[in-house]
Amino acid sequence: xxxxxxxxxxxxxxxxxxxxxxxxxxxxxxxxxxxxxxxxxxxxxxxxxxxxxxxxxxxxxxxxxxxxxxxxxxxxxxxxxxxxxxxxxxxxxxxxxxxxxxxxxxxxxxxxxxxxxxxxxx
Length: 122
Known about the structure:
Low-confidence stretches: none
C-alpha cells in the first residue's frame, strides 16, 4: 500500500526558499518514479516535476527555473526545493508515486500523499 507523507510546508516570505520532503513507504521506492503536484487555491492540480529511479528529471515549463526535484533512495524520500518564492506559489503540494503513465501525467489519486501547504506572504 502506497503511503506518502509530505512535510516542510508552512508560511514563507517572498524571495525565500523552502524544501518540501516526502517520506515513502509501502512500496519499493528505489524503483519508483516520483512526482510532485501542486494545487493552487481554486484551481485543479497541476504537474510540477517527475524524477526517475536513477534521478533523471522532468519539469513542467512553468516550474523549470525555481523548482528542483531530488530523491534519496536510501531514505525513501523525495524532495522539492522552491527558490525565490512568489505569492503565486501559495498552494497545496503533493507528492505521488508514478503509476506507469507518461512522466507528465498525474498518477492515480490513491498514489498521492495528503499534501503540505505552502503559504507565501509578506
